[in-house]
Write a structure and sequence with these properties.
Helix content of chain B: over 70%
Mean pLDDT of chain B: 82
CATH architecture of chain A: Orthogonal Bundle
Largest interface: A-B, 42 and 40 residues
Distance between the termini of chain B: 21 Å
Number of helices of chain A: 12
Strand content of chain B: under 5%
Oligomer: heterodimer
Structural class of chain A: mainly alpha
Shape of chain B: globular
Chain lengths: 293, 316
């Protein structure tokens, strides 16, 4: 009996962890090419979640169908953000870019607060509480879909980076910008693509959030922090690492919430974050270390 | 420093001290305005010591501010200190400093740049969550209500805030002119070179972090004596990091006058926005940070220096 509860907690952790993972991949891409810690990532996710919520409640569009609007819109938003906010300061060092992202987060949070009020929202679909039972373990349908979306998103990004010309250019630029420029890769193009990709993933994560959790304008910040923790655990090396880091974080939180209480789970995850930062900083943003030396 | 250069600050300080006697503290808006501006200037100058001079961008200033508020609230609600107790305010500063030293040694010895910023951000979150979970000791999510009946006039708050702002400016001035300040700036500009020249990098980083925390903690303690409600959202809110950062960025980080100008300007903008556009004024803080970074990368002070053509030392 107890084992099956532990297994249930594990499954829940994996399913919620994929949400952190998908946010972490976006952060990892943006940090990889531009060395920007895009702390507004979570707030963009919430913005996309609101998009999905309004499409559902005003026009009756199913959240999973809304992906075809939300993701392209997020891609365009990403291009806009890079061109308007980061293009000028992209090479000015990390301090200004971190502050711009910080400012963007505050701006969007409060804008959403004024426009959509601070009430917590959730998309109430007919299948929202539907659960599958596999071997005595309950799996929430919407969370399973979130997991599928995260895996599909990770797969798509990996395919893009490994198999397409543009994707290879992004990887080349994140490995060594000078050499990439020597073979004719334009940094601004690569940066724009990366930002668009990161925001596209945020859009996907937003839809997944809208269907699985209640959210309000200020829940994005916690999301960003969780994504950073996921990166710290998973390491900066690969896209898959971000996803795995997120899943691991989800499992840690899930068990912390089970053995302690829900409120302490977040404390545990921040303590894990600080410990990883202190004792395994090379796990976090690993490629950056060599770039700095 | 010549007498001529010393004169304007003395006049300004004297004018600030005279304000509560010229205007009626019960009615005058000016006093409240200068009180808030002084708190913001204190926070901005203290953040500036760590970020502007030492180059370690801390995003955990609200942790120290909130801790200061809570030290006063917890001690006061148990009758250990009284209303506006100077011991309480100093104690709050010391507690914040101790936290800064405890967390600063591991964080600052291992982390640089963004990692330090993220670590301090995590610290603020941990404190906020632990306070919410703290049960009867911290009052949980509702916070601690203090006896508001003890409030008489804003006059003592005003003078303490002014004193704290002057203290923060004095500390910054001392740091800028002394060996300590030189060591901090050298760490900011080239850490390896500073270390090679025999500067104990960690010692100076932790020192600047602890001094900044001391000032932030005392600001929090003072505000607790004014608002009488110390709750996690209000005192561990990210605003207490956001505003000092914005003030320094706007005024010019790494200068002494920058945060003063930025603090006054921003308080004015906020108060005007709060009056005319009560709903949307927090939007401006985010927008201002973005615009300031893109168009005024060296702040208003940078503008003056560029315009005057005397790009000498201090301001960068």
């Amino acid at each position: 009996m107890f084992t099956s509860i532990l297994l249930q907690v594990l499954i829940n952790g994996i399913l919620s962890g994929t949400m952190y993972g998908i946010a972490a991949i976006g952060l990892s891409l943006i940090f990889g090419t531009m060395r920007i810690v895009f702390i507004a990532q979570g707030t963009i996710i919430i913005l996309a979640a609101y998009g999905s919520y309004w499409l559902f409640s005003l026009m009756g569009i199913d959240p999973y169908v809304s992906i075809i609007f939300i993701v392209p819109a997020s891609l365009i938003l990403g291009i806009g953000f890079y061109q308007a906010l980061f293009r000028k300061v992209a090479r000015a060092g990390q301090f200004p870019t971190l502050l711009i992202a910080f400012g963007l987060m505050a701006l969007l949070e409060n804008l959403m607060f004024v426009m959509f009020t601070g009430n917590s929202r959730a998309v109430q679909t007919s299948y929202a509480s539907h659960a599958l039972t596999v071997l005595g373990i309950k799996i929430s349908f919407v969370r399973l879909m979130a997991f599928v979306m995260a895996v599909a998103g990770t797969g798509a990004v990996t395919f893009f980076l490994k198999k397409t010309m543009l994707g290879k250019a992004v990887r080349a630029a994140s490995e060594n910008l000078e050499y990439a420029m020597m073979v004719g890769i334009t940094p601004h193009t690569v940066n724009t693509i990366t930002f668009a990709l990161g925001m596209g993933l945020a859009g996907l994560a937003g839809v997944a959030t809208a269907t699985t959790y209640g959210f309000d304008p200020f829940s994005g910040f916690v999301f960003s922090l969780k994504a950073m923790i996921a990166l710290a655990i998973g390491g900066m090396g690969s896209v898959v690492g971000g996803l795995l880091g997120g899943i691991l974080l989800g499992v840690v939180e899930s068990y912390a919430a089970f053995f302690l209480t829900g409120g302490w789970a977040d404390v545990v995850s921040y303590v894990v974050f600080l410990l990883v930062l202190m004792f395994r900083p090379e796990g976090l943003f690993s490629r950056d270390m060599s770039a700095k030396l | 420093m010549t007498g001529r250069r010393l004169l304007p600050p003395i006049i300004i300080i004297a004018a600030c001290c005279a304000v509560p006697f010229v205007f009626d503290p019960e009615k005058s808006y000016l006093i409240y305005f200068l009180f808030m501006a002084s708190i913001y200037v204190t926070l901005a100058e203290s953040w500036n010591i760590v970020a502007g001079y030492t180059g370690q961008v801390s995003l955990g200033h609200h942790a120290f501010f909130g801790l200061g508020g809570y030290v006063v609230a917890i001690a006061w609600s148990r009758g250990l200190i009284g209303y506006l107790s100077p011991i309480g305010i100093v104690m709050a500063g010391v507690a914040a400093s101790v936290l800064a030293i405890l967390i600063g040694i591991p964080l600052l010895s291992k982390l640089r740049g963004d990692y330090f910023a993220l670590g301090t951000l995590g610290l603020g979150e941990i404190l906020r969550l632990v306070t919410i979970q703290g049960g009867a000791f911290t009052g949980g999510p509702m916070g601690i209500l203090l006896p508001a009946s003890s409030f008489g006039t804003i006059r003592p708050h005003y003078f303490i805030a002014l004193f704290l702002a002057l203290l923060a400016i004095a500390v910054s001035l001392y740091m800028a002119k002394s060996y300590v300040g030189l060591a901090l700036v050298s760490i900011r500009d080239d850490e390896a070179a500073a270390e090679a020249n025999g500067i104990n990098v960690l010692k100076f980083k932790v020192l600047s972090f602890a001094v900044a925390a001391f000032l932030a903690g005392m600001s929090g303690a003072l505000l607790a004596n004014y608002v009488f409600t110390v709750d996690p959202q209000g005192f561990y809110g990210l605003n207490w990091t956001l505003y000092p950062v914005l003030i320094c960025v706007l005024g010019g980080a790494g200068t002494i006058t920058g945060p003063i100008i930025g603090g006054l300007l921003l308080t004015a903008v906020f108060e005007i926005a709060r009056y005319f556009l009560p709903e949307i004024h927090p939007i401006f803080s985010g927008l201002f940070i973005i615009l300031a970074i893109i168009f005024l990368p060296h702040g208003l002070m940078g503008l003056r220096i560029r315009g005057g053509g005397k790009a000498k030392g201090g301001a960068r």
